[in-house]
Amino acid sequence: MLGKTELDIQTSIERRGLHLTELKERLQFLRNYAQAEVSEVEQFLSDVTQSVERIRRELVGGIEDKRDSVIGQGERIVSQLEAELGELQERRARLAVQATSEDHIGFLQSFEEVNAPYQDTTTLNGDPDLELHFSLGEVKSALGEIRERLDDIHMGEVHYRHSMLTLHETDSMMSIRSNKKKDFSLKDLRKFKSGSSIKKVRVYLEEVSLNPVTAYPFLILSDDRKQLKRGEKLQFFRNSTQRFDVWSCITAKEGYDTGRHYWEVSVGDNKDWKVGVVRDSAQRKGLFDMSPRNGYYVLWWSTNHLQALTSPPLTKVKMNGRLRYLGVYLDCDEGHVTFYNAKTGSEIYSFTSEGAFGERMFPLFGTSDKEVPLMLPGAPAHTYE
């Protein structure tokens, strides 16, 4: 009896220790996730501030330059007119003095000077163009729209679902409302800065590992589940509802239903590979089109051509040079899957869903190459099963 009680206590200790470790890891993930969000938002706001300052310099500086030019021209004319007016007043004063003088000879001499031909420069130069025309209607309208959009940015509520053993977060969302009350997300704020950078998505870098339960039966996996290639013989005999039986593919163990995630894979000189994301509910058995319509967001390299597996026809993807290291960025809440050349940092292709995916998404890998494996990060040379 004592031994059984001690065993029960030991089992409870081990179970709670495991749960404690998992909870601490989850909390650390939440800290890192929140910090990454803060860093990204701060970067966006910094970019917006820089853009506003640039617009301020260009618009205000342009207005002030044109103002100074016109005002300077006007002030020069004012100075000229004041000088001419002073000269005329001086002539009139001299004429008044001579009119009362009894020196007739002096009067005649002064009268000739006062009555000398006078050149009116303002008449010769015509009316000066002292007007300002800025034509800022469109600029003011655009700035007004931006201001309204910025005024409508607000922080949504942060909701957490607690249980005794697990802690899940729903991504706190920066949203924007338009006049039509259509909901927007943080991607609207991104529009203030064009382009995207792999540096921003690498803050979400995660390690993934292969799930043998889903593997096509002829795929060979490394011991640490970090590499795969096609084999000659059957490797997996047990059937599974999750296992691919026609397409030479496998998913990762890790699945995501919220937040942003990024992982990388080395494709090297592999001659035929597929990399992307698949919905949890997507078909695995039989022959079917791998396309967004069927829950697949995948790039396919074969016969030296890269294609996006869109609904037939496929979409050719242009590249500069050979792609050897691929990055995949998944934004569950925005419904985006974006592929990067992880070596150069350039964006290759992006799938966009209408809104959030709304279910668990899994990294997908596939190959028909029997010599060159696909390799996930952190994997040195490994032995194969």
UniProtKB/TrEMBL annotation:
This one is known as B30.2/SPRY domain-containing protein
Q: Which UniProt keywords apply?
A: Coiled coil
Name all B30.2/SPRY domain ranges: 188-381
Is this entry keyworded Transferase? no
Keyword hit for Coiled coil: yes
* InterPro entries the UniProt entry points to: B30.2/SPRY (IPR001870), B30.2/SPRY_sf (IPR043136), Butyrophylin_SPRY (IPR003879), ConA-like_dom_sf (IPR013320), PRY (IPR006574), SPRY_dom (IPR003877), TRIM/RBCC (IPR050143), TRIM8/14/16/25/29/45/65_CC (IPR058030)
Coiled coil region boundaries: 71-98
